[in-house]
Amino acid sequence: MAESTALRELADRVLAKGRAHGFDDFEVSAKEKALSEMQIDAGQVSLLRSTNEVTLSLRAFSAGRMASVALNQVDSESLALSFQQLSEGVQAAPVDESRVLAGAQSVQRLEYGPTEPSLEQMHERITSFAKVTVTEYPDIKMEQSGLQFFRNEMVRLNTKGLSISSGTGGYSFFGMFSGKRNRRTSSFNYSGGHVSSLDRELIDIGAVRRLMASSVREIDHKPLEGKFVGPVILSPECFMDLVNSWLSHLRDGTMIAGTSRLRDKLGQKVASPLLHLSVRPADALFAARELYTSEGYVSAPSSILESGVLKGFMLSDYGARRTALSRAANDGGNLVFERGLSSVNEMIDDTKHGLFLQRFSGGYPAANGDFSGVAKNSYLIVNGELAQPLSEVMVSGNLFDLMNDVVSVSHEAVNDGTTEVPFVRVAKLTVTGK
Amino acid sequence: MLDLRSLKSEIASTSPSGTSCEVRFQENKNIRISMLNGQLMVNSQDVSRGVSARAFTGGYWGFSSQSVTSLETARKALRDARRNASFLQQRAPRNGGLIGVSQTSSDKLYASRVNPVPSSVWIELVKSVDALIAKRYPDLKARSVSLMSLHMKKQLVTSSDGFLSSMVPRSHLFVAMTKDSPHGPIQHREIRGGLGELQDLFLIRPDSLEGWLDEIYARTSRKAEGVLPEAGVYDVILDSDLAGVLAHEAVGHTAEADLVLGGSVAGDNLGNVVASPLVSLVDFAHTYRGTVCPQPVHVDDEGVPATDTVIIDKGVLKTFMHNRETAAHFKHKATGHARAFTFADEPLIRMRNTAILPGKSKLEEMIASIDNGYYLMKAGNGQADTTGEFMFATGTGYEIKNGKLGRALRDSTISGVAFDMLRSVSMISDEFTWESAGYCGKKQPMPVGMGGPSIKARVHVGGR
Fold first, then answer.
1. Any chain B CB within 8 A of the CB of A213?
2. Cβ–Cβ below 8 Å for A143 and B386
3. CB contact, 8 Å: A139 with chain B?
4. Which of A332, B159, B231, B460 has the greatest number of beta carbons closer than 10 A?
């Protein structure tokens, strides 16, 4: 589909204003976002919501100083105020020569996904989801859940010659639920993901079906007595939560601050040899894809871990200049952990006494990687069986130890439309009951 | 600013009996300035403005929004909202109604009486604070200083002849310091600010912050030499800064009526004793003890007057927090808890200023009463659960050994089951403080206030 002429004209008009304003460099990103959403409340479809918004993000540079503003009004008065704010911001900012705009890119237009929602099909799917849930999982209580269609158009131009646009569309489903029977309730859980069409039932997206079945069993949760240090199997959702914190040590914030614990580890073993992690932007494997980086570069594939060896950081161009390292080829938007050889059942079979951790509800890990939190929707494993759903159990460990302690990786994986992640088994975490 | 009052009669006359609608204008303004180790990482201002409409017909809600702000786009949003509700209504019947709302009018603007100043003033303040930290504490591994403000301006007209105009600003200064330790880098962060625009709170001399910065540095240093708690269940003192998070996360969420309908444990306990008789927990609308709360709400985004909601009174669970639909479902009074974060968001049930009320004990005697436990002081992120099991991060604390404070603690997490924990409360202090920088996450983010005294209770402490 061709780019939006109106959005291109708007971006051209604002770029011309930026040039006329006398900044050394100037960039505009114009976006139009359209959303249609159907929502379930307490098990019933309750809301149809549609939104439309045009936004402008402006960045100005003068003598090595940078400021940015964002607005969603395109009238002359609003633009004039924004340029005044940019001028004030630029004048007061300290000099930082590491801020450099992206130049012309090899690909000017990228797009994927449907352009219009099918409201009839959305209604059919979400109604079916509510019915299937009641039929197949009568002990499931639905919390707020929703099916969205999104369409985003973007045009980005700057005085360095950047001229790119994108059009992206698709459906996104989020289901939140808990098991409830009489006065007993499981912990809530949730799943969902992005899909490019509604050719399958919503209950089959992400890990919804697995987690609903599990939630029913979790109604009979019991507290764990005592404490042990032992093997833990992490669900893909749970593993990814912790991995995201680990990845923050490869990104701008900690790398620039000097607090990253992986700063000097390029080319070294930082994780289990079973872990292979890559970024595959624009890959058809995913329904929601990273096309350009947040700085305007065309996103390209990259490798982060190969057999546990750190192959690359996740630095922006700015972060790379600040740290004298290389810019990452992407923003890390589409992560893929290579699948392993074990099945989840084999992992459980191989565990004499451990924990099956399905959701981690914890504090943000400390700067040194220490973490602790509650094991939600989780099970005690005894002699190779999921013996007991648990409550009031805490798990603690260290991110860097955890990544090194992975002893098996499953061949099953969850693709939520943006990432693909398997189950992993780690040798030891601290598990504490009452 | 767009004036929606001219739409009032039009909305009322086009809303048949049994239907309801509201039209809202909203503007959110953000200023964010952030420095990391002396480098300006963020220097941005953004404005999000638009109109939205929501219509209730035949048990269904329709919602629509436009970022172009005019009376014409407001009318279009209303037509689209009604069309969306009709789309659902035509495909299946749905039971459900709304509790009635009487005519309401509210005009509460917390805008500054001080003229705005250029953003350069705020950049200079952040630069000066950063330079002060760099000069005073040269052994830090990293430092960050951020100044942030959010102003939410709303105007609402409803088919019940309601009118709301509000402007609620809040502004905060964040300082984080990181030191090396044998356990790796250790960070400590503190926040100051609250209700008000930047010029209300931060037209200050940077050196007036020296005492506060010294305290942050001292806490960072003690934490760098600190220990992880020994994981297990302990008697703890939760400082007043934590008690508000406890009120919000552990109890508040379970008493939100939409979560009750989703199976929350509070649904089975209305009228039951769920806490020690020492515990009373209130979600304040806008004022406590004659002082405006951090997040004042006078009329909510459905046009319902916001009232103080006593959730727990002397240990007994008294009521839930409602929007118009859940109030009708439960046949309770409307409480004015429906709020939307941006113009493009539909109102959801959200807490406003949730607090545990103070007791009579002194903090010192509370600490002295514990042989082996912890004094936990600063809260991080938290999460609630339908089961009542909660967790939140703690960023500062001390061991308590034989009634005395011991070694400092590194970051940890505490958890418990809300009503079990509340039943274990054996002492509540006589002080009270508000925490004003919190955001609650529930489909949309939302600024909230959380407050309380110090509390002695039994919780599960994560750690080594």
1. no
2. yes
3. no
4. B460
Residue (of B63, B30, B32) closest to B48 by Cα position: B30
A220 in reach of chain B (CB within 8 A): no
Question: Which of A51-55, A132-136, B242-246 has the weakest average pLDDT?
Answer: B242-246
Closest approach of A85 to chain B, Cα-based (Å): 7
Which of B67, B256, B341 is best to mutate for the A interface (most A CBs within 10 A)? B67
Comparing CA positions, the residue from A79, A103, A100, A76 lying closest to residue A24 is A100
Q: Which pLDDT band holds residue A418 (cuts at 50, 70, 90)?
A: very high
Return phi, psi of residue A382, to 5°.
Answer: -130, 125
Q: What percent of chain B has pLDDT over 70?
A: 100
What pLDDT digit, counting tens, does each position of B382-402 carry? 888 888 889 989 989 999 999
Confidence of residue A1 (pLDDT cuts 50, 70, 90): low
- Position A42 pLDDT exceeds 90: no
User: Tens digits of per-residue pLDDT, B299-347?
Assistant: 999 999 999 999 999 999 999 999 999 999 999 999 999 999 999 999 9
A74 → chain B, closest CA residue? B68
**Which secondary-structure segment (H or E) carries A62?**
strand A44-62
Query: Residue A70: closest CA among chain B residues belongs to which residue?
Result: B46
CB B119 to CB A176 under 8 A? no
Whether residues A177 and A286 fall in one domain: no
Task: Answer yes or no: do A122 and A258 share one domain.
Answer: no
Domain final residue, candidates A218, A239, A274: A218
Structure tokens at B421: 């924990």
pLDDT(B170) > 80: yes
Q: Collapse the DSSP code of A264 into the 3-class scheme (helix H, G, I; strand E, B; otherwise coil) and give the result.
A: coil
Q: Last residue of a domain, which of A185, A202, A218? A: A218
Distance CA A372, CA B464 (A): 9
Per the structure block, which two tokens stand in for B23? 């039209």
Measure the CA–CA gap between B360 and A134, rounded to whole angstroms: 50
Helix (H, G, I), strand (E, B) or coil at A83: helix
A51 in contact with B, Cβ within 8 Å: yes
B309 forms bridges with which residues in the sheet? B283
Q: Are residues A338 and A228 in the same domain?
A: yes
Number of other CB atoms surrounding residue B441 within 10 Å: 10
How high is the pLDDT of residue A31?
Answer: 97
Q: Do B391 and A68 touch (CB under 8 A)?
A: no
Query: Are A247 and A328 part of one and the same domain?
Result: yes
Q: What amino acid is encoded at A44 in this protein?
A: Q
Phi then psi for residue B84, to 5 deg, are: -65, -40
How far apart are the CA of B292 and the nearest CA of chain A, in angstroms? 30
Residue A202 and residue A240 share a domain: no
Where are the strands (E) in A159-226, listed by range? 163-181, 184-185, 189-195, 222-223
Do residue A157 and residue A281 come from a single domain?
A: no
Complex ipTM: 0.94
Residues of chain B in contact with residue A253, where contact means CB-CB under 8 angstroms, are 36
Domain holding A195, by residue range, is: 5-218
Residues A319 and A421 in one domain: yes
Asked if A343 contacts A412 with a C-beta cutoff of 8 angstroms, the reply is yes
Q: Residues B191, B51: contact at Cβ < 8 Å?
A: no
Beta bridge partners of B167: B109, B153
Contact B339, B326 (CB under 8 A): no
Shared domain check, A112 and A189:
yes
Angle in degrees, CA A250, A256, A258, rounded to 5: 85
| Segment holding B218, helix H or strand E | helix B210-224
| A76 lies within 8 A of chain B by CB | no
Domains of chain B: 4-224 (3.30.2290.10), 232-461 (no CATH)
Place of tokens 């048990």: B59
Q: Name the domain count of chain A.
A: 2
Structure tokens at A408: 């098996």
Residue A113: give its domain's CATH number: 3.30.2290.10
